[in-house]
Design goal:
This protein is mainly alpha-helical. Helices cover 56% and strands 8% of the residues. It contains 4 helices and 2 strands; from the N terminus they run ββαααα. The longest helix has 25 residues. It is globular and about 40 Å long. The protein starts with 5 loop residues before the first strand and ends in a 9-residue tail after the last helix. The model has no long low-confidence stretch (mean pLDDT 88).
Length: 119
């Protein structure tokens, strides 16, 4: 699940869109993608979200969520490279916004966001 696919009314989830992107997977993958898309640059908020979810569902391994978040970020950067540069896909948003999204993944990969989280 991705943050843009969750609809809110105030603080309550009122819908989920893009059902075509849904796949059966483990909860750690959903947590990594959702929190990684909600809090991509705030390590403290990101960890707070992961820890809260893991308290609600103790079967989800925090270390696995961290690893999946890093992998998801890398794969997303590669996917956006393919779509924007190689395939030159058209989207219903400005090219500038799409490039910012891709750049966000690249900056996150270059940062020390995950440093010491897996220790």
């Amino acid at each position: 699940i991705w943050s843009d696919h969750v609809l809110f009314t105030k603080d309550e989830v009122t819908g989920v869109i893009d059902l075509g992107a849904m796949r059966i997977d483990e909860p750690a993958t959903d947590v990594a993608r959702l929190i990684g898309s909600l809090e991509p640059n705030s390590r403290n908020n990101w960890m707070a979200g992961v820890e809260m979810y893991c308290r609600l569902n103790p079967r989800v391994d925090t270390r696995r969520v961290i690893l999946l978040d890093k992998v998801s970020c890398l794969l997303s950067a590669v996917q956006w490279l393919r779509w924007l540069v190689l395939e030159r896909r058209e989207f219903h948003t400005s090219h500038e916004d799409l490039m910012k999204r891709w750049e966000g993944f690249l900056c996150r990969l270059e940062s020390d966001f995950w440093m010491d989280l897996l220790d």
